[in-house]
Amino acid sequence: MFNQPVNKILVIRFSSLGDVLLTTPILRALKQKFPSAQIDFLVRPKYSDVLKFNTGISNLINFETDLTAKIKYDLRIANYDLIIDLQNNYRSRKLLHGLQPKIYRFDKPTFKKLLLVWTKINLLKDIKTISQRYAETANVQLDEKGLDLIIPEKITSILDIRKNYVGICPGAKHFTKRWPAEYFIQLGNQITDFGFTIVIFGGKDDIDVCTEISSKIKNSINLCNNDQILQTAVDMKLCKLIICNDSGLMHTASAIGIPLIVLFGSTVKEFGFIPFKVNNLILENKMLSCRPCSHIGKSNCPQKHFKCMVDLKPQIVYEHSQQFLKGL
User: Fold this and answer.
1) Pick from 36, 81, 248, 323: CA 20 to 30 A from residue 187's CA?
2) What domains sit in the chain, N to C, each tagged with a CATH number?
């Protein structure tokens, strides 16, 4: 327990999209615990839009590797009372080395994750979300709300609020976390026949797959963009349901409260990266002894069969999506 007066707090999470979004409940909890404190956040510029309009943050500091020396100097003279390092890697430790404030570091359950991957011994059965683990690091209590993504009113959508949309997000950083494109195409056409318009979301790394899928789903709308996350979130808000992989856009949809169907391949819920406090269904193949094959994802299936995704047939996902949509 940190019992000294706290006037200035620094939170560190450099990346990635989902990890940064998952810090937002902790920012609320810190503001509740230290209402008069200045709370600064250190993040890579690529992900700063996620926090740019968050009223719980006093100063948003962009972390750029080539400015490390200057940033370290600025942190020293800022004279923080408390630093919460939710990144806790070599780079963040090097940056904070020699600073005097009390530092709380995220205790990553790396060993337990690798034990599950390598031996299938599961010491993570008590599933905790990453936000819960962050809260334990910061020694704060979370409220009952979900993630925060504050969007200014000037950002608007081209979608028609009178129409019924279902969003799909086919991208993910690693191959083994991506449901096959042909499955998204089959599912998209089934949902279209059910009376909904498919909207396709992605970032700059997803342009090719989003273009391919859009060209093969009748009347679909391709809103893949150059990582404009606030625009994506505004457009997602007009969807009745989002169907996606375990990805940053899963957490984006969670942050704006859209119901989710999530397809898990090589990773598992026990790792903690699951939709946070939003109506969701995770679909996964629990019959495979090779899952999980990685705690982050791989560029190919080590067993060459990719059954974790291939066996999740479009018809299965369609039937679940029907249930979601009928209940809305």
Assistant:
1) 248
2) 8-138 (3.40.50.2000), 165-326 (3.40.50.2000)
